[in-house]
Amino acid sequence: MNKYCYIFAMAVLLWQPAIANAEDLDKETAFQKALQNNPTYTAALANIDAADGSRLQASLPPNPDAVFEIENFAGDDENEGFDGAELTLGIEQTIELGGKRSNRTKVADFSFQISKEQAKARALSLLAETDYAYMRLAVAQERMTLADKRLALADKTHNIVKKRVGAARSAEIEHTKADIEKGAAEVEQRKAQQEVITAQNDLARLLGSMDATDIGVDADLNNLPELIEKSTLFDALRHAPQIQAQEFAKMQAQSSLDLAKSQAIPDPTFGLGIRRFNENDSTALVAGISFPIPVFNRNQGGIKEAKANMIKADAENHAAGLALRQSAIQAWESFAASLVEAKRYQNDIIPSARKAYKQADDGYSRGAFDFLDLLDAQRTLYEVQEARLDSLLNVYEAKAQTDFLMGTHKTLIENLSQANMKGLNNE
Questions:
Q1: Among the listed residues 24, 42, 39, the one whose alpha carbon sits nearest the alpha carbon of residue 416
Q2: Domains of the chain by range and CATH?
Q3: Where are the beta strands (DSSP E) in 192-325?
Q4: Is the pTM here over 0.85, yes or no?
Q5: Which end of the chain has the least Cβ crowding within 10 Å, N or C?
Q6: pLDDT tens, 127-136?
Q7: How far apart are CA 123 and CA 47, in angstroms?
Q8: Is 321 helix (H, G, I), strand (E, B) or coil?
Q9: Helix locations, 21-99, DSSP H
Q10: What are the backbone angles phi and psi of residue 240, rounded to the nearest 5°?
Q11: Rounded (to 5) percent helix, strand, coil in the chain
């Protein structure tokens, strides 16, 4: 037993400097790092640039064709060699009718708008994840501090009991129970240490960093967030980027139908050139026009597909609105319930548990209480402190979700996104 305690003590001593020397990261800096370095958000920004390129490409008319023809050469008699050859040099241009280019550009423009809204949604989601990961690390650090205090408390109790047993004032079984409590505290300390490491890695991943060992946060867990009004949350949903993206998808589906209908109209091709007659060294202009005859293909399938996609886009828009509202209800209800719970632990339960432990500790020292009373008060204090930290995790998880739905960090996202786009365009 002593061997394992020594090994554990050395591990704690080696680990503690890493926490003590960790770089304290404020939340605003964490948000900025996430938006600047997170690869998934960088990919979302690149999608905007790609959609802008597609929009430009869709607005361009078809290129003209250069035409070169040679006729009546390498034949018999007067057409032998190139003596009777006719050479034509010309240009042909297809003219798009029915608003094809305009409709094509509209479809691409809506893709551009959709990609922008999707990038906003990804940014808001990223900041919500970062916010929760940040507070999760803060809670993990607090849990580590709590575990250290529990171990110190168990060690103190162990020493008191040891002295009382040595003085024949307590039974040997109390010493055994004190050993068990101290061992349990050591196990909880190791679990708390692992939780800190896990939380550091999660936050580092969101910040686009491979090294998590130097990450620490400084958050006041006693300063609980304020609950927003439910009506305010629902009002914000109308401007959520997920909803805006679905609205653009509906308009894109209508433009796709217009494009499909315009593609049923045949496009004429005009040609103009000059022809040289080698037989008499004369030249003349030539002109022509051609166009497909819409006998079989009038883009019937494309029109049918576009109509079905309109119905699909409308249904998906309605479904997204319902899902977002349901998520908002669940997030708000969870926020409200967990906030009440956290305040109850912070203001009532933990102070009462501390008072009960102090009374039991003082009473045990005087011999007024037995060891089971002290041990029960000690365990109760630790359990309610742990429960408070669990409730805080629920609070900050729900708060991060409501911030995501409300678009709380839109201004920060817009400012940093412009800087990121400039960086991408300069590469």
A1: 42
A2: 2-61+96-264+299-426 (1.20.1600.10)
A3: 215-217, 269-277, 282-290
A4: no
A5: C
A6: 999 999 999 9
A7: 13
A8: helix
A9: 27-37, 39-58
A10: -65, 140
A11: 70, 10, 20
